[in-house]
Design goal:
The chain is an alpha/beta fold. Helices cover 57% and strands 14% of the residues. The protein has three domains: 12-147, Cysteine proteinases (Cathepsin B, Chain A, Alpha-Beta Complex); 155-239 and 250-453, ABC transporter type 1, transmembrane domain (ABC transporter transmembrane region fold, Up-down Bundle), CATH 1.20.1560.10; 474-673, 3-Layer(aba) Sandwich (Rossmann fold). Keywords: ATP-binding, Cell membrane, Hydrolase, Membrane, Nucleotide-binding, Protease, Thiol protease, Translocase, Transmembrane, Transmembrane helix, Transport.
């Protein structure tokens, strides 16, 4: 494996990609070619971006999460990519296992060998396996997610906003012409009777100008809301169709930043893009006008553009260094506030409270100091830009005064030139602002695309199998599963029929089994069969709708009393309402789920199950907080209704409840046999 050494910090992903392409495809790819396709920040690139860039060249990487013990026990063959955490940063290396060590191909340190004890201190818990190599080129089109666009930009809205910007500009031109009339027709001719209608026209133009500015702001606000809604709608729709292991592959804090990404994109689509286009058009018109008035103004325009360009470059560099740090502090503050809130709700320990409080205070202080330093520098350069702009503005009047005395330009044209210059400066400032937001927008789009286009479930009927109704049998064949700390199942063979009660001591694997059956853990999709069909062959969205997994902490949904009434016989409905009253829930009461106790929450979840049919219900201690007397009535009188319409697998600590089920599976005995 050839090592391409990195030339700067945080470009280990580029070097790893070049090494993989060279080794598996026999191609030399330049550093700049990879760089041009990535958005490398001071934190480097994420797992998503590493997967995406390699898929463009036909190398299919798939990320997995595992512990150092599981890595040591796993019989991996050949090369794979490992994510390390070194020097307070994530770092990609290529690795290969030997009998007792790992050989690392590091773009910083070269080739060296480490044992697992040494590796444990820097291993992040994530690796990327090389699933497939496709050198045909066909794959590069199919998996090139960066080519997929988020097509929500509405040309009609964009054209309307550009039209409003140009309308404001043309009203400004009318205002210029009015000023010109005041000077030429009133002052120079000394004919004062025309001043009243000219003032009236000027006031009318200013009123219309202000009205259009108001309408523009309203449309910008409405468009931003519309784009936010569309982006959230697209995202939430895609999140419902993600593979389960998708979430473990998100880069640090990426999911917490979704709102920031969407707001940035919405602002760009609704306002910044139209402002950018209209600013270019307005600046071009003003430049032509000033050159038409006097060719001397071209020199000042060049100086102005050069000044603005330098200012943009400095602010862009400042933004790159400061914005990322500020966002990181904001995310850390959000996480600490959430931790503090959870702690105050569910536990108490003054030492822990003091520690969380101190951590939050430190993080806020760091954020304030970073923000202060960033804003002071930014303000300094903005004021320098203001000083240079005003200096050039004065130069226009100095040159104009000279030209006026030499009768090369009139006073009215001189005033118009000064006003036009200020508008040119304003248009260039808007372009600078948009330029600063452009990098932020592109970064947001890249991350948003990763969330949309990676690890999606199939959406066409031809891609997968539609599951038939009435699940009758779940079979587990030769299942082995290691959770990173210990082996939970080894060569497990099991047939599960409807109305099964699963028992076993804590840690035996009841919850793990449920997660494997519901494909929450993808490791066993080839070992589990429903009605004889392998999980990996099922249409995943159909499987997700078929299987319902609830545990003791499951959140309660708003109960549809009408649907419940339609699902139960009169006798059973009466029993339900009687039990509900005993637990503090009254007939057809609109429930506020946040105000429910744990027992009420579990009872409401159970009432929801009564409305379902033709589902596989995986119930993991779902009645543990319900009063024991009420729980027994629930199992005796209401569970038979659920059995009639659904495939139920249940586990509870109270083994006496197994009498209400047809089948009883003791996982401890089965594990011993396996």
């Amino acid at each position: 494996m050839k090592i391409y050494y990195q030339e700067s910090e945080h470009e280990c992903g580029v070097s790893v990609t070049r090494s993989l392409i060279n080794h598996f495809l026999g191609r030399e790819v330049s550093r700049s070619e990879i760089f041009d396709q990535l958005n490398i920040t001071e934190r480097g690139i994420s797992i998503f971006e590493l997967e995406t860039i390699n898929r463009k060249y036909g190398i299919h990487l798939e990320a997995y999460k595992l512990s150092i013990k599981e890595l040591q026990a796993n019989p991996l063959q050949g090369f794979f990519v490992m994510l390390l955490y070194r020097n307070n940063a994530e770092h990609f290396v290529i690795a290969k296992k030997t009998q007792s060590t790992c050989v690392l191909y590091d773009s910083e340190l070269g080739r060296f060998r480490v044992d697992y004890q040494q590796l444990a201190s820097i291993f992040s818990g994530k690796i990327l396996l090389i699933e497939k190599i496709d050198s045909s080129g066909k794959s590069r089109i199919l998996v090139n997610y960066s080519q997929k666009e988020i097509s929500i930009l509405k040309p009609s809205r964009l054209l309307r906003n550009i039209s409003l910007e140009l309308t404001v500009f043309f009203l400004l031109i009318i205002s210029f012409v009015t000023n010109k009339l005041v000077f030429e027709d009133v002052i120079q001719s000394q004919y004062l009777q025309n001043i009243a209608p000219i003032i009236f026209i000027a006031i009318l133009v200013i009123f219309i100008w202000a009205l259009v500015e108001y309408l523009k702001s309203i449309y910008y606000f409405k468009d931003k809301q519309w784009y936010c809604k569309e982006l959230y709608s697209i995202l939430l729709n895609r999140l419902e169709r993600k593979k389960n292991y998708f979430w473990s592959k998100l880069s640090k804090n990426q999911y917490l930043m979704i709102q920031e990404y969407i707001e940035t994109m919405s602002l760009f689509y609704s306002e910044l893009l139209s402002t950018m286009i209209s600013s270019v058009m307005i600046a071009s018109l003003i430049i032509f006008y000033l050159i038409y008035l006097q060719s001397w103004f071209l020199t000042l325009i060049i100086v102005l553009i050069f000044t603005k360009t330098v200012n943009f470059y400095i602010l862009h560099k400042l933004d790159n260094s400061g914005v990322g740090k500020l966002l990181k502090h904001k995310v850390n503050i959000q996480k600490l506030i959430f931790k503090l809130n959870q702690f105050l709700k569910y536990e108490w320990d003054f030492s822990k409270f003091s520690f969380l409080n101190s951590s939050l205070s430190t993080e806020i202080t760091e954020w304030q100091l970073t923000d202060k330093n960033f804003q002071l520098k930014k303000t300094l350069f903005l004021k320098l830009n203001f000083f240079m702009t005003q200096l050039i503005n004065c130069s226009i009047y100095f040159i104009g005064a000279y030209l006026c005395f030499s009768r090369s330009i009139s006073i009215s044209h001189l005033i118009l030139a000064g006003i036009a210059y200020m508008q040119l400066s304003s248009a260039l400032d808007k372009l600078i602002l948009n330029g600063l937001n452009w990098a932020k927008y592109k970064n947001s789009v890249n991350h948003f695309k990763h969330l949309l286009f990676n690890d999606n479930l199939p959406i066409t009927m031809s891609e997968a199998y539609i599951f038939p109704l009435e699940p009758r049998l779940i079979e587990i064949k030769g299942l082995s599963y290691h959770n990173g700390e210990k082996t939970i199942f080894h060569n497990l063979n099991l047939s599960i029929y409807p109305s099964s009660f699963i028992s076993g001591p804590s840690g035996i694997g009841k919850s793990t089994l449920y997660k494997l059956i519901s494909a929450k853990l993808p490791d066993a999709v080839n070992s589990i069969f429903i009605n004889g069909t392998r999980l990996s062959s099922l249409w995943m969205s159909s499987l997700n709708k078929l299987v319902i997994y609830q545990n003791s902490k499951s959140e309660a949904l708003e109960l549809d009393w009408l649907k419940l009434k339609q699902s139960l016989s009169e006798e059973r409905l009466k029993t339900v309402l009687t039990l509900a009253k005993q637990i503090g829930i009254y007939d057809y009461q609109k429930l506020k789920t946040k105000e429910l106790s744990d027992g009420q929450r579990q009872f409401v979840n159970f009432l929801y199950l009564c409305t379902l049919s033709r589902k596989i219900l995986l119930l993991d201690e779902t009645t543990s907080h319900i009063n024991s007397a009420i729980r027994e009535i629930v199992f005796k009188k209401l569970f038979p209704l659920i059995f009639e319409k659904n495939f139920v697998i249940c586990s509870e600590h109270d083994l006496n409840l197994s009498q209400f089920f047809i089948n009883h599976i003791d996982l401890r005995q089965i594990s011993l046999i396996s």
